[in-house]
Structures are given as C-alpha cells and as structure tokens.
C-alpha cells in the first residue's frame, strides 16, 4: 500500500492518533523520497533489515517486499493495531513494541537478539538498517549500531540535517566533533540527499537528510589494533569513544593544554605529553578539531599507554557512555 498524505491522515483519524512531536512522529508522505530511501538500502533477500520507528508502516511495506527479513521496533503502542495487521502471519516480519534504547545511550539488547535470530531463521547473511529515524534518538542509535559487534553492511537513516552534518563533517569544519571522528573511524559516512520539511506530515521545523554509513572493517581493525588488549580484543572503539569525549570537551585548546585538562592529565608530567606530541610529529599548537581521525587514533594510543602508567584501571566495554549529541 502506497501511503499518501490523505491515506495517512485517514489512518491516524481512524485510530484516533495525534502525532507526538516528542517522539519525532513526522511521517514520510512524499513517495519519491520514500522510493529513494528504499533504493539507497540496496536490498535483496539476503538482507535482515532493522527498521526503527515504523509508525504507520509506510517504509515497512517496501522493506518486507525486498528484504529477506524485517524487524521493526516501535515505541508507541497506538501503532500496534495498525502494524499488527499489515502482513500475513507467515511474512518475514517481526514487530517489536518498545523503546530501541534500553538507557539513554544503550540499544535494547533484546532488539539486537531478535535481529540476529530473525536473520538466522530466514537465512539472511547481511544486516542493514533502513529507517526514517526518530530525531531525538538518531545519534545514539547510529553510533551504537556502528560500535556493535553485529556485522552491519549498511545504514541508511533519515535524520535531522544538522545531525547528518555532524556525523559526516570534515576535519577543520565547524561541525567536526568527537562524534564525526568516532563515526568516521568505524565507517564511511556521507549525506546522500538533503530533504525539505514538505516531504513529511506534520512538517518538522528543520531540513532533514538521508545519511548513509557503511561500516568499514579495515577501519575497525586499525582502531582495535591500536587500542584493544589481548584480554579484550574489541575494547578499542569503546576506549576511543571515551578518549574523544574527554578530549573534545577542550577542542579549542592547544593540544597539550587539552590533554592536561583530561581526567588524570594534570598528574602526568608535561614533558611526557610533549614527548608524545613530538613523537607523533604534531605541531604543538594543533587543536583536537584540526586533527584527522588517524592522528587522533595514534594520539589516543599514546595517551592510554601513558595513562596506564598512572592508573592501570581498565574500562569496561559495557560502560554506558555519552560522547556527543
Ligand atoms: N517510519 C514512519 C515513516 O517513515 O513515516 C515513521 C517515522 S517517524 C519519523 C519516527 C517513528 O519512531 C515514530 O513512529 C515514533 O513513534 C517512533 N519512535 C520514537 N522514538 C522511538 C524509540 N525510542 N524507539 C522506537 N521507536 C521510536
């Protein structure tokens, strides 16, 4: 069923649903944009797709037609009767009613388990996210998915334009932050289309963007090799996330001053910090927001080596951390 504006308005009226801004309930009504999102997913029957926020099911229909399995997670129980009656019981579709986030910054592990189980059941070998994301949770959702150990091939998400800019920002640009560094250290990110408010009902106040993130296993290996330990081979990305969170709080400071401001930084002799900066052949005046993700990975490696001499306490890979929003 192609869900046009009048179809969606009727459906919402029939079920007595008034869209909630707080839950990012802006429904996609432009069918060209919908087709574009679906084709950006490059779907086939090999794909197990996660959709977050199916709402009235406008994308869901198209996903189930093309993919091998679709898991849709929706927080708002008012949509359950609509979504529950979309497909025949034997369709390769599962509806999970609940919040995609278990806490402010952690994905619900039950959803990830259902995704893996559905993929196995339907013989899907690839994992993809295709979703018109609820804006308030799009950053933690995308970041936690690329950090997760599920081998995701491709993420296509409709997000606020500003979020897409922050994630795909180039070094030195105004939007460049720890978030961009982390995202680009694990994936190749690009904005594939800017989208005006008119493609949604109700219209949001700002532009949106279709963001593509392609997890890159070589990049992940570089990060893991630099920052993991033999006991915890997957801890590298999490350590880097902590490092970026702490460093980018001082993004405008010259590097040594920023490192001094990091936790434990004041206890580390300044000569050790200078030696590290010199060894990496970085100019003394460089700032965090002028460094490439590779330079920051090297810096992070050196920082953890020094820091461990002062505080060998290990970070738990389960730690619930917020890097940026
Ligand atoms: N997929 C539909 C479309 O494209 O028209 C609706 C997308 S709408 C932008 C976002 C959807 O995400 C809403 O249905 C909303 O209820 C749901 N949602 C909001 N927060 C959520 C959360 N934390 N977990 C799961 N779903 C959520």
Summarize the structure.
By secondary structure, this protein is of the alpha/beta class. It is 41% helix and 18% strand.
Give the SSE layout:
Elements: H1 5-14, E1 27-28, H2 31-40, E2 47-52, H3 58-66, E3 69-74, H4 80-84, E4 93-97, E5 101-103, E6 106-107, H5 109-121, E7 126-132, H6 138-147, E8 152-160, H7 161-168, H8 178-186, E9 187-195, E10 200-201, E11 208-215, H9 217-227, H10 236-247, H11 255-261, H12 270-279, H13 293-310
The protein binds S-adenosylmethionine.
Residues 23-28, 52-55, 58-59, 73-76, 99-101, 132, 134, 137 line the site of S-adenosylmethionine.
Notable traits:
325 residues; alpha/beta; Rossmann fold; Helicase, Ruva Protein, domain 3; two-stranded antiparallel ribbon; 13 helices; 11 strands; 41% helix; binds S-adenosylmethionine
For the biggest β-sheet, the strand order reads: 4-3-2-7-8-11-9
Number of helices: 13
Stated plainly, the CATH topology of the largest domain is called Rossmann fold
How many structurally independent domains? Answer: 2
Biggest sheet details:
7 strands, mixed
Q: Could you say what the CATH architecture of the largest domain is?
A: 3-Layer(aba) Sandwich
> Are any ligands bound, and if so which?
S-adenosylmethionine
| Unreliable stretches covering 5 or more consecutive residues | 316-325
Structural class determined from secondary elements: alpha/beta
Mean pLDDT: 93
The top-level CATH class of the largest domain is Alpha Beta
Using the alpha-carbon principal axes, give the shape: elongated
The Rg value, from CA coordinates, equals 21 Å
Which series of helices and strands comes N to C? Answer: HEHEHEHEEEHEHEHHEEEHHHHH
- What fraction, in percent, of the residue positions are helical? 40-55%
CATH fourth-tier homologous superfamily of the largest domain? Vaccinia Virus protein VP39
Q: Strand content of the residues, in percent?
A: 15-25%
Span of the ends, CA to CA: 35 Å
Number of strands: 11
């Amino acid at each position: 069923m192609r869900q046009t504006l009048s179809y969606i308005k009727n459906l919402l009226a029939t079920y007595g649903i008034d869209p909630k801004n707080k839950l990012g309930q802006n429904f996609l009504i432009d069918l060209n944009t919908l087709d574009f999102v679906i084709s950006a997913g490059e779907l086939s029957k090999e794909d197990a797709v996660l959709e977050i926020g199916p709402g009235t099911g406008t994308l869901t229909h198209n996903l189930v037609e093309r993919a091998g399995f679709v898991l849709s997670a929706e927080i708002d129980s008012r949509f359950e009767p609509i979504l529950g009656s979309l497909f025949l019981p034997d369709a390769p579709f599962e509806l999970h009613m609940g919040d995609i986030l278990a806490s402010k910054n952690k994905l619900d592990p039950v959803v990830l388990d259902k995704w893996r189980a559905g993929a196995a059941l339907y013989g899907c070998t690839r994992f993809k996210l295709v979703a018109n994301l609820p804006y308030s949770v799009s950053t933690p959702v995308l970041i936690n998915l690329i950090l997760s150990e599920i081998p995701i091939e491709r993420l296509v998400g409709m997000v606020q334009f500003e979020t897409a800019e922050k994630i795909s920002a180039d070094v030195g640009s105004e939007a460049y932050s720890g978030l961009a560094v982390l995202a680009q250290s694990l994936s190749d990110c690009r904005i594939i289309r800017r989208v005006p408010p008119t493609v949604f009902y109700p219209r949001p106040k700002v532009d949106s963007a279709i963001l593509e993130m392609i997890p890159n296993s070589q990049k992940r290996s570089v990060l893991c090799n630099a920052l993991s330990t033999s006991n915890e081979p997957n801890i590298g990305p999490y350590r880097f996330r902590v490092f970026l969170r702490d460093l980018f709080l001082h993004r405008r400071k010259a590097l040594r001053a920023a490192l001094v401001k990091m936790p434990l930084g004041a206890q580390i002799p300044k000569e050790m910090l200078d030696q590290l900066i010199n060894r990496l052949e970085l100019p003394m005046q460089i700032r965090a927001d002028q460094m490439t993700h590779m330079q920051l990975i090297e810096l992070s490696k050196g920082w953890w080596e020094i820091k461990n001499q002062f505080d060998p306490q290990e970070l738990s890979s389960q730690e619930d951390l917020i890097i940026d929003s």
